Amino acid sequence: MAWFRKDKKPLRAEDRREVPTDVFDKCKGCGEILYRERLAQNLNVCPDCGYHLRVGAHAYVSILLDGGSFHEADADLRAADPLDFTDLKPYPERVAAAEAKGKTEAAVSGTGQLDGIEVSLAVMDFDFIGGSMGSVVGEKIARAGRVALEREIPFLIVSASGGARMQEGIYSLMQMAKTSTVLARLHDSGIPFISILTHPTTGGVTASYAMLGDANLAEPGALIGFAGPRVIEETIKQELPAGFQRSEFLREHGMVDRVVDRRDLKETVAALLRHQYAGWSD
Ligand SMILES: [Zn+2]
Prior knowledge:
Blueprint: H1 2-5, H2 13-16, E1 24-26, E2 33-35, H3 36-41, H4 57-64, E3 71-73, H5 91-99, E4 107-114, E5 117-124, H6 135-151, E6 155-161, H7 169-188, E7 193-202, H8 203-206, E8 215-218, E9 224-225, H9 229-236, H10 247-252, E10 258-259, H11 265-276
The structure holds zinc ion.
């Protein structure tokens, strides 16, 4: 009797863990199913294992700035298509598709109060074309840096990026020089710049402003690097050590000053600004 001997297929782990996506999220760190609301209250850090789930630019604005103090700048800047670029689809279509998801670019910038300290802030958003740095991202960051310079207020950048935006070619690469120049002027004027690196921060962003902070802070477990590990291994013909390009490894090797839990980020930045730059506290 065939039915009697029928093998019972065990449920695969991923089937068993399937959950409605609008109420729950599954932690990528420990696999725990978490109430989205509870996660949000915990700034999207898993209460069980501490894994930092990705959040968008506006979430960082709320995490860092005092409620209602943010004034967004340059919200109407839009990408041009200087190279008439077509890969799988024309670049303007790619931008339009990204915009249709509710975001206008891979960076949000403006000013606001962080624990009562007036700051200029730019936050990248990985959900918009992989957080790629095109001319709009570079321009928003450069302008926000200039606001810090003119108003003599601290400057913060939260980075999350796959690197340069290939659809803008050399225009994208030029943003590295443009933003770095503004940061050099801030440095010369003694105005603090704090760089916050989140998962992932790679390519041209790591090779420019993300690593130029007076303090470089990183969220736990963030991938931070210029080229990917495979490319490096193939180039240097060596196996890379475990945890290479993660926040903690970079902290041990002096590339990052401190690994900071998202829940302590605001407090840490406020303390840094107050300790190092006494004049900024009032
Ligand atoms: Zn977890």
